[in-house]
Design brief:
- Belongs to the Nudix hydrolase family.
- Its cofactor is Mg(2+).
- One of its GO terms (molecular function) is hydrolase activity.
- This protein has three helices and seven strands.
- The radius of gyration is 19 Å and the shape is elongated.
- A hairpin with an 8-residue loop joins strand 4 and strand 5.
- Strands 3-1-5-4-7 form a five-stranded mixed sheet, sandwiched between helices.
- The relative contact order is 0.20.
- The chain has one domain: Alpha-Beta Complex (Nucleoside Triphosphate Pyrophosphohydrolase), CATH 3.90.79.
């Protein structure tokens, strides 16, 4: 018996049902920006205790690399080229948030001065250059672990992480 081909309307209805039922992942895009001394930029956020890497939540339909560009320009007043993807990090549920994917991009080395007058005050209370080994004093545990793994990884390539660790140890 010949299979009936579904109409465009039927296909859209079926996809609509699947979209309503299938899980939706929150995506986060952040950038790893270093200064000439090798310190990383961490943002002191106005809405949570932990500092974080610059970036934010990916808007629906937005590519993660564009998110990093947009967030850094909106929040820090910087226009930076987004480099290669350093890591994709699956994060389990944490503090009431569902699980998520974090895309970490290399933003290279920034030798300029940060201008706090350009910071988005409702989100950024400050921005600080921190030695990578001291980041754990300021960031969430998953961010500290991710920075440690990234620092130990050979240059080039993209890491796949689960809860900020390489699968299988």
């Amino acid at each position: 018996m010949a299979r009936r081909e579904e109409t465009e309307q039927e296909r859209r209805r079926r996809i609509g049902i699947l979209n309503a039922r299938l899980p939706k992942k929150r995506n986060i895009a952040q950038g790893l920006l270093r200064n000439p001394a090798g310190e990383v930029l961490l943002c002191e956020l106005s809405y949570k205790a932990e500092w974080d890497l610059p970036g934010g939540v990916v808007d629906p339909g937005e590519p993660p690399a564009l998110t990093v560009t947009r967030e850094i320009e909106e929040e820090l007043g910087l226009r930076l080229p987004v480099g290669p993807l350093v890591a994709v990090n699956w994060l389990p549920p944490w503090r009431g948030w569902d699980d998520a994917h974090l895309f970490l991009f290399d933003l290279g080395v920034f030798a300029g001065e940060l201008d706090p007058s350009l910071f988005l005050p409702r989100e950024i209370a400050g921005a600080h250059w921190v030695r990578p080994e001291a980041a754990a004093e300021h960031v969430a545990p998953y961010t500290a672990r991710m920075l440690e793994v990234v620092a130990r990884a050979p240059a080039g390539g993209t890491l796949y992480l689960e809860n900020s660790e390489l699968p299988g140890g």
